[in-house]
Amino acid sequence: MKLSRKRRRLWIVVLAGLGLGTATALTLTAFQDNLVFFLAPSEIAGKNPGPERAFRLGGLVEAGSLVKDTTADGRPEARFRVTDGPATVPVTYVGVLPDLFREGQGVVTLGKLGPDGQFRASEVLARHDETYMPPEVAAALKRTGHWDPKNGAPPPAASWNTMEPAPARQGS
Amino acid sequence: MSTPAPSSPRPLASTAPRGGGLHRFANPGRFLRLTDRLLPWLWGLAAVVLGAGTAWALLFSPPDWQQGETVRIMYVHVPMAWLAMGGYAGLAVASLMSLVWRHPLADIAARELSPAGAMVTALCLATGSLWGRPMWGTWWAWDARMTSVLVLFFLWVGHAALVRAFDEEERGARAGAILALIGAVNLPVIKWSVDWFNTLHQTASVTRIGAPGMHTGMLYPLLVCTIGFTLLFAALVLAQVRAAVMERRLRQGQLAQARRQEGAA
Hints:
The complex is a heterodimer of chains A (172) and B (265).
Chain A: H1 5-31, H2 41-47, E1 55-61, E2 67-70, E3 76-83, E4 88-94, E5 106-113, E6 119-126, H3 135-143
Parallel strand pairs in A: 4-6
Antiparallel strand pairs in A: 1-3, 1-5, 2-3, 3-4, 5-6
Chain B: H1 28-60, H2 74-101, H3 104-135, H4 144-163, H5 169-183, H6 186-196, H7 216-264
Helix pairs in contact in B: 1-7, 2-3, 2-5, 2-7, 3-4, 3-5, 3-7, 4-5, 4-6
């Protein structure tokens, strides 16, 4: 069977696309461990970055762990624990925390892990989860006991994303 | 079919592909007639939908319980991100048409698509940066999502530059089409970067399995804004392609006239 020129060109493009796609997939799979933006607390033991190497630690700010303080020279200091469930790492940070920093919310910190197990952060970034919710709906979920933001992610979206927000009270 | 002289662009109307199916739309003459009637409606519809969507998003949608009013950046950022990727998918299709079927209209479409695509990708990056500073605490992070979108921006700009870098338009179009198709592997990487790698950027809220993680009070205006921006993008690109087709016809007409005069003299 003789292929027409158009058909042949189509096959060349398709085959080249398949080859390129496979190569990319293999490369990404191979690099998956190196392409991480941050390490979770339970991954630290396995990777063992050492006290001299700066790395990013990411997870949830453990509920009730945040202590705000001031250093001797009057700068704000925060102590909190970052957890991913199985493991927890205590973190100290001198500086201003981002607006979205909250207990139960995601956080990514850059710093070094001391020999005492304390992670000394030089930068704290807040992570945002994929939920977008009007304040009235969040308040209603909290009021009815369906969700405490300190304990992490909200209930399944289907249970609240069409919820009618209670009429906003004036001055609230 | 005679081969055109190397320096002259591919003749447009004379090589109109015959045949049925979608190839009918590769005829530049038919394209001009069709878009002549379509474009006024497209501009009008884009203005109405975008006006309504913007008003809904900025004035009548609720703030976010955590982000407050800053969440309204989303109504520009997310449509720009979707358009950047959807537009690139369109560029890949046009490039395939150009490489396999040698449709001259596909070359022109690809050539006119890339500046617009670069613009929406730049807007996506800029609004993301403006959003990231107050929310995350940083303008930029080299995580997989942001880096792959930056690569997309470079692909758009590279394509725009490459197709214009050749004296012979056809060779530029060929090189650009190959670049665009190679770059298409970046699209799934962008989409799933937030799932495959851990990133600072959050995972998808709307295009995910199960219910959208976004209250409908924000989701609906977001979708209306997306439709509005898409209509505007389509109108802009179609108008550009029309202008390019007419420009080329004019040049061919002038060339033919010059040849006739040369022959008469």
